[in-house]
C-alpha cells in the first residue's frame, strides 16, 4: 500500500511538471511570435521610409539602383520568413491578415523589380504606392496583436 501511495505522489508531481512545461512553452511561443511580429513590422516601416528615398536617388545615381534592388529583395525574404512563422492559437487570425498584407507588398515589390530590370523607375508611383499604406495597416495590426496579449 505504501508503494502505491508513493507511486501516486510521484505520478502527480510528474504530471504537474509536464503541465507546467506545456504552459511555459505556450508563453514562450506567444512571446516569441510577438517579438518576431514587432521586429517584422519595424523592418517594414523602415523599408517603407527608405525605398522612396532610394528610388529618388536611383534616378540620378545609377549606383543606387543596385542598393534599391537589394532592399526590395531583402524585404521579400523577410516577408517569406515571417509568413512561415507558426502563430500561437490566439494570433492565428492576425497572422492570416499579416500574410494577406504581405502578399500585396510582395506583388508590388515584384512590380518595382520589373521596373528596375526594364530601366524605368516610376518615382511618383512608388511614392503613392499602396504598398506604403499596406505597411501602415500592418502597424495597426501589430497594435491589435499587442492588445490581444494583454
Number of helices: 5
Overall average residue pLDDT: 78
Biggest β-sheet: count, sense, barrel?
none
The CATH class designation is Mainly Alpha
The run of helices and strands is: HHHHH
Q: Using the alpha-carbon principal axes, give the shape.
A: elongated
* CATH third-tier fold name: Four Helix Bundle (Hemerythrin (Met), subunit A)
What CATH architecture do you see?
A: Up-down Bundle
| Strand percentage | under 5%
C-alpha termini separation = 48 Å
Radius of gyration: 23 Å
CATH homology superfamily name? IL-4 antagonist (De novo design) like domain
Helix content: over 70%
Domains, number: 1
Number of strands: 0
Overall structural class, as computed from helix and strand content, comes to mainly alpha
Low-confidence stretches are none
TL;DR of this structure?
The protein has 150 residues and is mainly alpha-helical. It is built from five helices and no strands.
What would your notes on this structure say?
This protein has 150 residues and is mainly α. It has a single domain (2-149), classed as IL-4 antagonist (De novo design) like domain (Four Helix Bundle (Hemerythrin (Met), subunit A), Up-down Bundle), CATH 1.20.120.660. 88% of the residues lie in helices and 0% in strands. It is built from five helices and no strands. Helix 1 (2-60) packs antiparallel against helix 5 (130-149) and helix 2 (62-83) runs antiparallel to helix 3. The N and C termini lie far apart (48 Å). The mean pLDDT is 78.
